[in-house]
Amino acid sequence: MLKKYTFHVNGMHCNSCVILTESELKEVSGVSYVKASLKNLSVEVAGDFNDKEPGNVAQELSEVLKPHGYTLSLEKQNHSAGWSDFRIAIPIALAFIAFFIILQKLGIVNLINASKVSYGTAFIIGLIASVSTCMAIVGGLVLSMSANFAKEDDKIRPQVLFHVGRLASFFILGGAIGVLGSAFQLGATGTFVLSLIVAIVLLILGINLLDIFPWIKKLQPTIPNFIGKHAHSLKNINHTLTPLLVGVATFFLPCGFTQSMQIYTLSTGNFITGALIMFTFALGTLPVLLLLSFSSLSIHKKTQSEIFFKTAGLVIIFFGIFNLINALVGAGVIPPIFNF
């Protein structure tokens, strides 16, 4: 008998979580309909559950989602800001920021540039994105694809094709976005507006990682969900070139970090600069994705510490504030504030 339930989803942070939740639950035997909502942090599920109690259904479906860091419950759980975590997160974040500023002042890395997002910034944002919940969907793709091909005793080739496809697509499509920006002939005003958008997006992402204002999740920009859903569904196609296509498709997944870099790339108006920005960002995500590819570790088993997410959020907010200040300085709105 077909029944419909609405469960609260614990652990949902962004539209990537929505897509991943829906995709995983749709593959459960007996489930005929799934619709997740980031706004309400809930999921509607319909199907034949053999007259099981709602609590039992929630528990069984939670087992499917647990590897990705989500659980279902009948009642909405009270949100805990975890203010005590900041006692550790703030010193770590300050040390991280100070370390890279010192490297920049020594000329070892060009992390901060007065007029643009540097390759160092893109790489660091990529590192943080790779271990944030916004990259959960990419980690889920990697793990699911690995499992599918492992059944055929084909473990190495699919992983190599996936990462080659991912890096190549970020380079080529990043360059294409740069060229698109030049076609619009962005002037000083257009560049300022896009830089401002990047700064705001980074601030929203950073505040979201702090997990102290639940409503901020609703403000995260994203591409249409149907694009992300189609990209995610590619993992179920068992073909020789599927890993390559899945790697290419990750460029279009609804990750706020990726989109902030894509927005900035549009302002470069140059193929090479745009390609290198996106390629460097993808390189930043590579270490963690490689770890996922060639091990049985779950991304959430390594990143569930609230202290870590708050530290990452503070670092992202730092980059957001700097980009905001740089945009205002570049537009002549305010004088230079920092001498590095």
Automatic annotation (TrEMBL):
Domain HMA per the UniProt entry, residue ranges: 3-73
Keyword flag Transmembrane: yes
Pfam assignment, any one: HMA
GO MF, any single term: metal ion binding
Record keywords, A-Z: Membrane, Transmembrane, Transmembrane helix
PROSITE patterns named in the record: HMA_2
Residues spanning the membrane: 86-103, 123-143, 164-186, 192-216, 237-259, 271-292, 313-338
Matches recorded under InterPro entries: HMA_dom, HMA_dom_sf, UreH-like_TM_dom
Name of the protein in its database record: HMA domain-containing protein
Biological source species: Candidatus Nomurabacteria bacterium RIFCSPHIGHO2_02_FULL_35_13
Source species taxonomy: Bacteria, Candidatus Nomuraibacteriota
